[in-house]
Amino acid sequence: MPYINIKVTDEQVTKEQKRQLIEGATQLVVDVLDKSLKTTHVVIDEIPIDNWGYDAKQYSNSKKFKS
């Protein structure tokens, strides 16, 4: 039973985008690992931007969020 965990920042990811992620990730595991579509599980975790960091900085403090 494959388990796929996708983590994204909580920046307005739409229901349709999540559906596409679940469908695409599932199909990739089916195609590459020859696993069953019916037993492949996908979980999407939305992480608050204050809890995400890169380049030793908090994502919410990046230039993208400073206006």
Automatic annotation (TrEMBL):
* UniProt entry keywords in alphabetical sequence: Isomerase
Q: What class of enzyme is it?
A: isomerase
| Superkingdom of the source species | Bacteria
Q: Pfam families this protein is in?
A: Tautomerase (PF01361)
Keyword Transmembrane on entry:
no
- Record's keyword annotation contains DNA repair: no
Ranges for domain 4-oxalocrotonate tautomerase-like come to 2-54
Q: Which SUPFAM superfamilies match?
A: Tautomerase/MIF (SSF55331)
> Gene3D superfamilies attached here?
Macrophage Migration Inhibitory Factor (3.30.429.10)
Kindly give the InterPro entries that the UniProt entry links to this protein. Answer: 4-OT (IPR018191), 4-OT-like_dom (IPR004370), Tautomerase/MIF_sf (IPR014347)
Its Enzyme Commission number? Answer: 5.3.2.-
Q: Which PANTHER family match?
A: 2-HYDROXYMUCONATE TAUTOMERASE, TAUTOMERASE-RELATED
Q: Which NCBIfam families match?
A: taut
| Similarity comment | Belongs to the 4-oxalocrotonate tautomerase family.
Protein's UniProt name: Tautomerase
* Organism per entry: Aquimarina litoralis
